[in-house]
Each structure stands twice: as structure tokens, then as C-alpha cells.
Amino acid sequence: MATQIHTVVNEIKRRIISGRYQPGERLLELQLVDDLGVSRTPIRLAFEELAKDGLLERLPTRGFRVKSFNARDLSDAIDVRGTLEGMAARLAAEKGMDSQGLQVLYSCLDEGRQLLVEAMEPGKVLDARQWMAINATFHSTLIQAAGSKPLDDAIDFISKIPLAAATAVSMQGVAPQLEYEFIARAHHDHCDLVAAIEQREGMRAESIMREHARKTRDNKQRLLSS
Asked: Between β-strands 64-66 and 26-27, what pairing exists: parallel, antiparallel or unpaired?
């Protein structure tokens, strides 16, 4: 069931990003049941998950519709998130991360590196869903290490804007080659960031994270226009 839910989530997300489902459009369970060939349960659970991601919004009566957003709002939101996460990176570096937190980050680097290597094999594509899980762990560990609840709350608020969250780095297969290129760059940034944090270089860590977010902003603009 879990795999089926992820498949449905990814397909609906891809249709929203590609413009097949327009902002404000109501999504009907029964229509998607016929369209995707699944039961109502994974559709319903997928709607809930996509609402948490900010791509759908619950209607006052029943059902969900595609949440409206535009490229300018998305770009501005990512810029704001970059500033906030840059601060988180600086605080984490200045305070120093404990060995457990660093081990989580290094595990993320190892898993990301292996994912990229496997995607280079003939006939393989990058597992975007697995990368998103790795990326989510990396960013949440970093924010936790900053030790600032107001900062954590601010990042959580801005991340509710559709596609603005750090975890929404993948476009779910809309442009696989571009995705691989962008994720490879993101992994390289992660490596540099961990090195800066480990060396207690707060300003460098902040600069890397802000540039990391800027690249994400530009990448998503390219993906949305591809």
C-alpha cells in the first residue's frame, strides 16, 4: 500500500507541475480512480499528503483543489528560506554539532553519493523519491542543530508555500536529465557544507547554504519551464 500511495502522490504531483491540473481545479477521487487504476484509499491518502506539501488545499465542503501559486512567489519564498537556512547553518557551525548529528549528515552524504553512482548505470534513472528522503533528513538535522525554535518555526512557515520546501527539490520525473544534474550539484553543496560545519566556519557555512538555495530557485525555474 505504501508504495502505491507514493506512486499516486508522484503522479498527481507531476501532473500539477506540468500544468495538466490547473490552479483552482478540483480533483475528484472517482475520476482519479478510473484514470490511475487504483482504489479510492490511496487516492484519498495521496490528497492528504499533497495538502501537507502545499500543492492541494481542502475545500470547505468536501474534496481538494490544486492550490494556486506563481513562479515569482516561489522564487521569493526560496530566497527567504535560503536566508533562514543560511542562519541555521551558521549557528550549527558556531555552536558545533555533536558526533551523532555529524554522523547523520555523513550518512546522508554516503547515501546520496551511492544514489548518484547507481543512476549512472545503463538503463537506470535517479531515484528521486529516495533522494527527497535523504535531503529531508539532511536539512532537518541541520535545522535541529541550530537550536533555535523561532528559526525552526519560520522555516516551517515558508516551506508551506508550494514547492518552496527544501524537501521539494525533485519535480518527480518531469525532466529526468535536468533533475540528475541539479541533484548532483545539491549533493556537492552538502559535502562542502558539512566540511564547513565540522571546521566551525560559520560564515562559510551560511554562504554555502544561501548559494545552495539560490541554485535551487534557479533550478526549479528551469524545471517548471521545461
From this structure: antiparallel
